Automatic annotation (TrEMBL):
GO terms for cellular component: cytoplasm. It catalyses: Cleavage of an N-acetyl or N-formyl amino acid from the N-terminus of a polypeptide. PROSITE patterns: PRO_ENDOPEP_SER (PS00708). Residues 1-435 form the Acylamino-acid-releasing enzyme N-terminal domain. Residues 119-144 are annotated as: Disordered. Pfam families: APEH_N, Peptidase_S9. This is acylaminoacyl-peptidase. SUPFAM superfamilies: alpha/beta-Hydrolases, DPP6 N-terminal domain-like. InterPro entries: AARE_N, AB_hydrolase_fold, Pept_S9_AS, Peptidase_S9_cat. One of its GO terms (biological process) is proteolysis.
Length: 715
């Protein structure tokens, strides 16, 4: 079953639907996907999770009001059971991809999941008692607000503490898992393998929040650990495992990863002998919001004796600086629920490798790592699922829409040799006009030498960075299309060589794109990434200018028709560039840009980011909620607003009014300052959008206006 989403502009929502297929292997080199004739819309479904055997399907429906949460159990032919869990038990089930965790136990009778803890009681205020015969709702009283509670910031505004629950799918009984400290936010729960006796363990990720909860979206620098908690069971008369009431004192929580500052995405090996997990310890230890990951293994005590827990084994350590084009380190934002090949020790992962995403295989016993997607391909690949020892993936490029691929061993004795088949799929279909426009475009990945290499730079920071260049493949004369420089946010993120509807639109209407992965981006090793904190506004700005000069010198761009667009930190760079290089750009577009660190530090959900990116890793330890005059002075000096007197580039601002990461006041202050000095400025504020500006109508209006703005100044 493929889960697909599609923007619905009229409803301003994304439609979610399921499309089923039957896979038939005709021979070793041929496979057929028999697709259902039509998809099925999953209206109101927050999560859809098949059981391990595939015989049952859980559908969770979170309400938009105070109604109960619905749990539906489906068989192949019908709805078998439906349970309504009132919000006095718990709130909405987390289905966000981070705290989210829904896990069936091995005999498919219990499901563990993460949901919002129930709402705390609020004070009632009354102007006097009501008279007899009044309705249940007392018109002379109202509910107060009660104490304000911290949340996890951007995209989590108003969501309550993620907590752990178990539902019995036979009886519908729901229990909160006991023994977990209130200071822990819980996520990514999985059932541990069955052990001796009637005790079963749940393994989950816990984020401690004894003081302030700092924003967690896109921020892997929040310390976390793997924990195990025991769930007591008993056998019913029908010999089925049932939940047993226990006191929290009976069920101590065990920290499995005390010796490491970060552990998440736990996965048990098929034989249950070891537990594998990802770690963002480089991010936590340095303070960078994202950095190079590592992969680790611990041997699982099948007898439940955690005192004999072995030390943590490094499977993939952090790569500081890769030689040549070798493996640059692990950059993985998720792991399949079942990532294992049939040998029981080889797992498959998607990981960023330079400006592309690839699929790798890792033997967690030996540490052997292989890139299994074609090395000669500049496309990006995303791992969807496994079909036995075969792979279902999606491949795309900036000028090629996503294509379903089927991968299989060419030589089973040599697991590094894979072959990939194109799968005819309705998912890949697009209108003929889109195909025609894309067919006239081409792309390449450029290596850009670093300018002004100094001796105090690490080896990794001296290596060339990359840029993706998208241009016309039908050049009729010596003229060049206008150039749009595209800058990603973060700064510790990356622009991948994958399909982007918005960028494909800008390219198809007659622009070349220079998509720059400046030093500090993911996918190039830890030394290159850590070279940026403390140097934002200078090193990253210089890298972008170097990349622009590179394509101009190659005759690929006209220096009089250069524009720039970026969001978040990309907006920070956009507004820096039009100040530091005021004659370079004919127009600019900034989406939720960070323009003034001194303003941001007191209003954002990630004030620690301001310290780390301004001071470097030492800023992690100097972070305070009450910045000094010296801090504010440094923040201002690092900010685009310090160069505003030089700006003359016409600039359009796209701002989300609900943005907690870079609040709307940041962009508005800068835009007003430009207007004050007579620079042509256009501002569009999307009242219901957060940092990403991803609601369908907002995304549409945003990029349509960017295209029109650039067209106006690139005549």
């Amino acid at each position: 079953m493929f889960s697909i989403s599609q923007p619905n502009l009229l409803a301003n929502k994304r439609k979610k639907f399921m499309l089923s297929t039957v896979i038939s292997k005709e021979n070793e080199n041929s496979v057929t996907f028999q697709w259902a004739p039509f998809p099925v819309e999953m209206t109101g479904a927050s999560a859809v999770v098949p059981s391990p055997s595939g015989s049952k399907l859980l559908v969770v429906r979170n309400p938009e009001n105070e109604s109960p949460i619905q749990f539906e159990l489906w068989s192949q032919s019908q709805l078998e059971k439906e349970f309504h869990v009132p919000q006095t038990v718990h709130g909405s089930v987390y289905a966000d991809g981070w705290f989210e965790g829904i896990s069936w136990n091995s005999d498919e009778t219990l499901i563990a999941y993460v949901a919002e803890e129930p709402s705390p009681s609020k004070p009632t205020f009354s102007l006097g008692s009501t008279k007899g015969g009044s309705s249940d709702k007392d018109c002379n009283s109202w509910k107060g607000q009660g104490d304000w509670e911290e949340d996890w910031g951007e995209t989590y505004a108003g969501k309550r503490q993620p907590s752990l629950f178990v539902i019995n799918i036979n009886s519908g009984e729901v229990q909160a898992v006991k023994g977990i400290p209130k200071s822990l936010s819980v996520g990514q729960v999985v059932w541990a393998p069955l052990n001796e006796g009637l005790h079963q363990y749940l393994v989950f990720v816990g984020w401690s929040s004894e003081t302030r909860k700092l924003g967690i979206k896109y921020c892997y620098n929040r310390p976390c650990a793997l924990y195990a908690v025991r769930v007591s069971l008993y056998k019913s008369e029908a010999s089925e495992l049932e939940l047993k009431e226990s006191s929290s004192e009976d069920l101590p929580v065990v920290n499995l990863t005390e010796s490491i500052s970060s552990a998440f995405f736990p996965r048990f090996s098929p034989d249950g002998k070891f537990l594998v997990f990802l770690s963002a310890k480089s991010s936590v230890d340095s303070g960078a919001h994202s950095a190079t990951d590592s992969l680790h293994r611990i041997d699982w005590p099948t007898n439940g004796n955690f005192s004999s827990l072995e030390k943590i084994v490094d499977v993939i350590p952090v790569v500081q600086c890769a030689e040549g084009d070798c493996f640059p380190g692990l950059y993985s934002s998720s792991i399949l629920s079942n990532p294992w090949l049939s040998d029981g020790c080889t797992m498959l992962l998607s990981s960023i490798w330079g400006s592309s995403q690839v699929i790798i295989s890792v033997n967690v016993s030996s540490g052997e790592l292989l890139r299994i997607t074609p090395a000669e391909s500049n496309f990006s690949w995303s791992l969807l699922t496994l079909d036995g020892d075969n792979i279902i993936a999606v491949s795309s490029s900036p000028v090629d829409v996503p294509q379903v691929k089927y991968g299989y061993f060419v030589d089973k004795a040599n697991k590094g040799t894979w072959s990939w088949l194109n799968v005819s799929s309705p998912i890949s279909r697009c209108p003929e006009k889109v195909k025609s426009l894309l067919s006239s475009r081409q792309f390449s990945i450029m290596k850009i030498p670093v300018k002004g290499v100094s001796a105090n730079l690490t080896k990794g920071a001296q290596k060339p960075f990359e840029a993706i260049f998208v241009s016309s493949s039908h050049k009729k004369d010596c003229s060049c299309d206008p150039l749009i420089v595209v800058l990603h946010g973060g700064p510790h993120s990356v622009s991948l060589s994958s399909y982007s509807k918005s960028l494909a639109f800008l390219s198809s209407v007659g622009y070349s794109l220079l998509i720059v992965n400046y030093r500090g981006s993911l996918g190039f090793g830890e030394e290159a990434l850590q070279s940026l904190p403390g140097k934002v506004g200078s090193q990253d700005v210089n890298d972008v200018l170097t990349a622009i000069d590179h394509v101009i010198d190659m005759g690929l761009a006209n220096p009089s028709k250069v524009t720039v667009v970026g969001g978040s930190h990309g907006g920070f760079l956009t507004t820096h560039l039009i100040g530091q290089a005021p004659d370079k750009f004919v127009a600019a577009a900034a989406r939720n840009p960070l323009c003034n660190l001194a303003l941001m530090v007191g209003t954002t959900d990630i004030p620690d980011w301001c310290y780390v990116e301004s001071y470097g890793s030492k800023g992690k330890d100097s972070f305070t909620e009450s910045p000094s005059v010296e801090d504010l002075t440094r923040f201002h000096s690092k900010s685009p607003i310090s160069h505003i007197s030089k700006v003359k580039t016409p600039t359009i601002f796209l701002l989300g009014a609900q943005d907690l990461r870079v609040p709307v006041s940041n962009g508005l202050q800068y835009a007003r300052a430009l207007r004050e000095k007579g620079v042509e400025t256009k501002v569009i504020v999307f009242p219901n959008d957060v940092h990403g500006i991803e609601r369908p109508q907002s995304d549409f209006e945003s990029f349509l206006n960017i295209g029109l703005w650039f067209k106006k100044y690139c005549k």
